[in-house]
Amino acid sequence: MSTATPSYDDLTGTWTRLHRLGHLQSIAGWDQASNMPPKGNEARAAAMAEMAALLHRMRTDPKLPDQMARAEQEPLSELQRANLREMHRQWRASNALPEALVQAQQMATSRCEHAWRTQRPANDWAGFVENLRPVLANARQEAELLSQLTGVRKYDAMMDRFEPGMRCEQVDQVFGEVRQWLPGLIRQVTERQAHEEVLQPQGPFPVAQQRALCEAVMKLVGFDFAGGRLDVSTHPFCGGVPEDVRMTTRFREDEFLGSLMGTVHETGHGRYEQNLPRELLGQPVAEARSMALHESQSLGFEMQLGSHPGFIQHLAPLVVQAFGEQPAFAPANLAKLLTRVKPGFIRVDADEVTYPAHIILRYEIEKLLIEGEIEIEDVPALWDARMHELLGLDTRGNFKDGPMQDVHWPEALFGYFPCYSLGAMYAAQWFAAMRRAMPDLDARIVRGELGAVFDWLRENIWSQASRWTTDELARRASGEPLNPAHFKAHLERRYLG
Amino acid sequence: MSTATPSYDDLTGTWTRLHRLGHLQSIAGWDQASNMPPKGNEARAAAMAEMAALLHRMRTDPKLPDQMARAEQEPLSELQRANLREMHRQWRASNALPEALVQAQQMATSRCEHAWRTQRPANDWAGFVENLRPVLANARQEAELLSQLTGVRKYDAMMDRFEPGMRCEQVDQVFGEVRQWLPGLIRQVTERQAHEEVLQPQGPFPVAQQRALCEAVMKLVGFDFAGGRLDVSTHPFCGGVPEDVRMTTRFREDEFLGSLMGTVHETGHGRYEQNLPRELLGQPVAEARSMALHESQSLGFEMQLGSHPGFIQHLAPLVVQAFGEQPAFAPANLAKLLTRVKPGFIRVDADEVTYPAHIILRYEIEKLLIEGEIEIEDVPALWDARMHELLGLDTRGNFKDGPMQDVHWPEALFGYFPCYSLGAMYAAQWFAAMRRAMPDLDARIVRGELGAVFDWLRENIWSQASRWTTDELARRASGEPLNPAHFKAHLERRYLG
Fold it and tell me: Is residue A2's pLDDT more than 80?
């Protein structure tokens, strides 16, 4: 078979194989979290490490640089060029780090994460620090190497793994603005809500009914169950592959809203994956653009849409169907429950107004850690100072609800945290763009015509995958690059309007 | 690292990698049958085919013959020699067939099996023949190539894939004997049972209770749920990996004994896998010996133990616990239900007395097919003649309950069927050996001391894995090679005693 683009074709063949083998790795990872019995762990870890090494060898095949160089000279379409650009990005990321460092970090994170599971409930900060130290040391080495390779500063290089093109300069500016108005907004909203009467739902809420409710709401927001599932895991996530999306949630019998809205959140991730351009799957250009964009989908589903008073009118009957009538299930009361603002210690339990405070504080601290300007021992004091300043909370001595609460640092995911708040900002920006395109959007949501939202997202975000840089995608979708003013306007309208 | 056995060590390294990557393939296969939504199928098939090709390349690596030849000269222990022997066997099986034939057969079986799912309920024999023809043609080529390579006759070569060392000569002799006494025994037993009063359990039997019952009985027969699971699939099987055994069953609300005893059957497979020698897992010598030995475990659990009147005394209270009191759940009545003999069309529904008739008929037909002595068009007449002779049933025109009932031929598993009845015979032989070693075995089973059975199986079968040939294993375990007299004695004692 002879084509005009032989090198490009070789490359797409390699990435198709990576996609297929990665499929097995993804399903095994989902299974590990949702099905695997404890004695399977050692063999599973060995199997997945073997596959990881195999995938790494394929991504660092010495033939690739030459193939990519030759493909550059071939007559490629714009889409193929975008694909080649993304191949190059992935190849560079895989080749940047010596295998010894990758392995050392794998060992260090695995040990740190495993110990963290018991150290956190025991509030054992000293023990945690010992395990986190090698993780941070490896991460700093990694940042140094990536920085040398790409010419950006160290924390930028780490953040680039999750949010290509994002730089501290921009994050500092955006978060710096938020810092100005957030504490005041939180104060205003909590004062205003202090006088609200809110009814609490009365449990228990049997797991079978909760599961049925979650599945009904997933259908309401368009999840395709012919191409995915909902299961249970300790830490909810959206995994699997675009062709077979595996979402997980967790249930507790005394409370259902957390699990329900968590499921709506993950469904945003899931629909992004389910609607990536099918004919290109396996190629880098068909992958989700970035983690901030991914979070813009999950937070778009959970916050922009899921807590929208019009949407809640359609959610309430499903809740009643699951658990029977309760005064607390009246739409107006459900809306109050879903927009309750209360500063708290725990990021994953935070409402959308206080959430950015948790992110800003982590961002400021992990940037200093990676850049080598502070050590782990300095974290608790900084944490406490920021929690005071941003949320008015005292965290002294409470490590387990403080810097030990997240799995991100034990897993060396330095640079990930900003994506959550950038995602919330992009989500507000998408909905603002939708309202400009469809001035009756809110009325449509009230009428349950959610297709208006999903069609816009499919056309502007999902189907575009990695064709453009994040900036270009944002411009094409909304007419402007990241603009946090939409997020502020959203919060003010919803919480002070 | 320098050792006295560098080539042997290289080989064990290769097989460890095969084991690890095969782990992902097994889990993905289980997931495909028990979890996967329909739209995931295409991507899953592509992923598993990619992995199959990768594993095949590893098993046919041109370095292997030389490594094996050099390993032969190294100072190996007896166990290592056994491992090398099994490596050689696997290598030969993988290398015997040209990749084009393997791929052609994969395509043909995939098409045939897929069409069979609708052709069987439609009784569409003509359509089925068209799809089975290329499957048989490929299988004959495969048999011819394997026969040339190993010097045994063609059907022997096919059977050797499942039951190493078994030959038509022995099967003919064993099945020939059974043919002599089986029709008479069936007549005697059915006449005797005609006068028995048997109470039928009254449904419905809710799925949740059935599942709880199955899990309780699995625990009773020693399944380790810390290293395995029970799930649901259309066709029950025992899959996964030895470190994480994935068993499946299926439930219908109007009947529970089929699913329950099917689960006991699969648990026999599961415990064999769970108790293979752990320190050698990944090496061929640590794999289950053969399919007849595997079936000897499942049928040992289901028939020898599971339908033992002493065992049923412990089963009955669990049934009552699941569904409440019923006269039909009295141990004596349950025993009658589990030993009811009735000639029927369907192999998988057959009792242990008529079952061998189904196997003998399939064996005789598929041997002629593979040896080229008949064509597919000749099958229905032969089938009908054998069903008449062995079970007194008329099958003319009823293809769906006749030669179209099994998935084995669409999947080209020619040579597998004999393993079922050989397994039933080995199972009887093991229990006879146990009774010689423990004259109070039946009293122990009555007392619920099932450990006596499991300890014997662990010591004599499970822990021995593939260390010995089947013949040698049988001699070591029971003092003699395969001896079908034990099977006959078992049936006579249970059904005429």
Answer: no
With a cut of 60, say whether residue A370 has pLDDT above it: yes
Residue with tokens 């983690």: A291
CB A37 within 8 A of CB A304: no
Q: Contact A240/A222 with Cβ under 8 angstroms?
A: no
A27 and B27 within 8 Å at the Cβ level: the answer is: yes
Question: In A, which residues are within 8 Å of B286 by CB distance?
Answer: none
pLDDT at position B50 is 94
pLDDT digits (tens, 9 = 90+) for B339-372: 999 999 999 999 999 999 999 999 999 999 999 9
- ipTM greater than cut 0.90: yes
For residue A104, count other CB atoms closer than 10 A to its CB.
16
Residue type, B276: L
State if pTM tops 0.90: yes
Q: State the burial class of residue A292 (Cβ atoms within 10 Å of its Cβ: 0-12, 13-18, 19+).
A: buried
Decide the pairing of beta strands A244-249 and B238-241: unpaired
What is the DSSP code string of B255-270?
A: B-HHHHHHHHHHHHHH
> How far away is chain B from the Cα of A278, in angstroms, using its nearest Cα?
11
Burial B217-243 (b: 16+ CB within 10 A, else e): bbebbbbeeebbbbbebeebbbbbbbb
Tell me: the pLDDT tens digits for B102-124?
889 988 998 899 899 899 999 99
Residues of chain A in Cβ contact (below 8 Å) with chain B: 17, 20-21, 23-25, 27-28, 31, 35-40, 42-44, 46-51, 54, 224-229, 241, 243-244, 281
For residue B316, with 0-12 CB atoms within 10 Å meaning exposed, 13-18 middle and 19 or more buried, which class applies? middle
Instruction: Choose among A23, A31, A40: nearest Cβ to B243.
Output: A40
Rounded (10°) angle between helices B355-370 and B168-194: 150
Place of tokens 């894995």: B465
- Which chain B residues are Cβ-neighbours of A21 within 8 angstroms? 47, 50-51, 54
Q: Which residues of A touch B39 (CB under 8 A)?
A: 224, 226-227, 243-244
Give the residue from A21, A230, A220 showing the smallest Cα distance to B37. A230
B437 touches B431 (CB < 8 A): no
